[in-house]
């Protein structure tokens, strides 16, 4: 990435202009920066976990006011007319566009967002702690729903970064027994401090079979051990937008017994509203490391080298 001075963007008729207060550093940003996910537009500004203050309203915008704190997330627009949108599955819209991939995001002092895709944010959290909720939290919530964990069930979480440490808290609040798999000793310490039942290495066997597991780490080699850790009838959810190649699977060891593999493709606005409503009712301990906006490269490098425990967040001056 390079630091550039650009004009403050003008909001379109249906958009808000927000002054960015904080922007989370998501692993998706790292995949875009490193070329795992080719950019949809050259020179795009990354960042899709934005907490900002509304400073201008498009001519057609209603329902928002100047000075209001809002959130900007990954999903930025859908067609609203395809069979997926009409069925309430807008995350699968083939015409969907994304913040920080198709349009400029929050690694900046100002950003725009269509008003229909802006989130109202829960009280009780400072900007730095709210930012990771807007992707890490929302996508973790969708992944947990996709896991169909039974009441009091045994959940495994593979990878314990921004999404993992938030999803674990949501599951624990619902009465789940959570096991965490991560190569980071610091992340294992955080997991145990948050109240999980067990924390071990990335490919370790859990103390007992799991009813469901969520793979947040972008490591395809963890799919076979995660499937082996499942009890019969268990569900493995692949929660990342990018995953390295999955090794060959053995039907008897990995899939037999009606074990299921599911992916997560973005989220719907309903997912976001539900999760942020839950965050208002269930206080979440959001572990963050703050960086100045100009240190975005440093934050991405730390994320790539597993030097961030929890979530990295860029703060505007």
From TrEMBL:
The protein's required cofactors: Zn(2+)
Family: Belongs to the zinc-containing alcohol dehydrogenase family.
Keyword Ligase part of the UniProt annotation: no
Keywords, sorted A to Z: Metal-binding, Oxidoreductase, Zinc
Domain Alcohol dehydrogenase-like C-terminal stretches: 164-279
Protein name from the UniProt record: alcohol dehydrogenase
Assigned EC number: 1.1.1.1
Domain of life: Bacteria
Entry-linked InterPro entries: ADH-like_C (IPR013149), ADH-like_N (IPR013154), ADH_Zn_CS (IPR002328), ADH_Zn_typ-2 (IPR014187), GroES-like_sf (IPR011032), NAD(P)-bd_dom_sf (IPR036291)
Catalytic activity: a secondary alcohol + NAD(+) = a ketone + NADH + H(+); a primary alcohol + NAD(+) = an aldehyde + NADH + H(+)
Source organism: Streptoalloteichus tenebrarius (strain ATCC 17920 / DSM 40477 / JCM 4838 / CBS 697.72 / NBRC 16177 / NCIMB 11028 / NRRL B-12390 / A12253. 1 / ISP 5477)
Domain Alcohol dehydrogenase-like N-terminal residue range list: 13-123
Listed NCBIfam families: adh_fam_2
Keyword Oxidoreductase on entry: yes
Pfam families assigned to the protein according to its UniProt record, in alphabetical order: ADH_N, ADH_zinc_N
């Amino acid at each position: 990435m390079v630091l550039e001075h650009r004009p403050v963007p003008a909001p379109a008729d249906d958009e808000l202009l927000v002054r960015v207060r904080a922007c989370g550093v998501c692993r998706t940003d790292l995949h875009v920066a490193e070329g795992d996910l080719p950019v949809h537009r050259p020179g795009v500004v990354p960042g899709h976990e934005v907490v900002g203050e509304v400073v201008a309203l498009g001519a057609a915008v209603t329902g928002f006011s100047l000075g209001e704190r809002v959130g900007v997330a990954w999903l930025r627009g859908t067609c609203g007319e395809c069979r997926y949108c009409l069925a309430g599955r807008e995350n699968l819209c083939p015409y969907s566009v994304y913040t920080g991939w198709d349009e400029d995001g929050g690694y900046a002092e100002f950003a725009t967002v269509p008003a229909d895709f802006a989130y109202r944010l829960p009280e009780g959290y400072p900007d730095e702690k709210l930012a990771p909720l807007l992707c890490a939290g929302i996508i973790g919530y969708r992944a947990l729903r996709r896991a169909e964990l039974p009441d009091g069930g045994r959940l495994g979480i593979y990878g314990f970064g921004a999404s993992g440490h938030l999803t674990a808290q949501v599951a624990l609040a619902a009465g789940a027994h959570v096991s965490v798999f991560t190569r980071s000793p610091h992340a294992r310490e955080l997991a145990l401090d948050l109240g999980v039942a067990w924390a071990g290495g990335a490919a370790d066997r859990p103390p007992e079979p799991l009813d469901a597991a969520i793979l947040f780490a972008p490591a395809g080699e963890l799919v076979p051990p995660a499937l082996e850790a499942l009890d019969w009838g268990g569900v493995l959810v692949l929660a990342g937008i990018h995953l390295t190649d999955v090794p060959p699977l053995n039907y008897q060891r990995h899939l037999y017994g009606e074990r299921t593999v599911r992916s997560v493709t973005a989220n719907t606005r309903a997912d976001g509203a539900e999760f942020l409503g839950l965050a208002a009712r269930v206080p979440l301990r959001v572990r963050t490391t703050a960086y100045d906006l100009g240190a975005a490269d440093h934050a991405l490098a730390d994320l790539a080298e597993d030097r961030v425990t929890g979530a990295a967040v860029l703060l505007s001056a």
